[in-house]
Amino acid sequence: MADRTNPSSYTQQRPINNSTTVPRSNTTTNHPLSSLLRQLLQSQSPNYSGQLFGLLAFFISGGILLLLTGITVTASVLGIIAFLPVIIITSPIWIPLFLLVTGFLSLAGFLFATGAVVSWLYRYFKGMHPIGSDQVDYARSRIHETAAHVKDYAGGYFHSTLKDAAPGA
Q1: Which residues cross the membrane (predicted)?
Q2: Which of 21, 74, 99, 154 has CA 20 to 30 A from 136's CA?
Q3: Is the pLDDT of residue 164 over 70?
Q4: CA-CA distance, 129 to 134, in Å (whole number)?
């Protein structure tokens, strides 16, 4: 029989101070998943706390962005549905206007690019060393060296084959 004077020897736990909950025993659960989880939480929680916070922030940000994307797509579809009759009725105005604006922007872009290239070439040939001229000079010297090497190699190759084809020549 259990010793009634020593409370730790009781076989059954009693509620404390007339409460309805029974304190947990000190025995650990032998379930493999719970022991693995306990081991992971005890051994590696300080190392992964920053990563867990980053992962939590990633999921919250991703959820907010996904919600905003859904709202944007929904509003766009509803706007297209609402304004589609107006767009169809006024399409004889929109199509030439679109072509005119696209042509103007393309022309302006091409003119700007041409002006930038001509300005760079002018400064390069005047010796003002514009940005990127060092790379152009290096590429030009490498191309010249490679061409000279190929010319020397091919000249020797063709000269030896001509002697073999016509030994008396």
Answers
A1: 48-68, 75-95, 101-122
A2: 154
A3: no
A4: 8
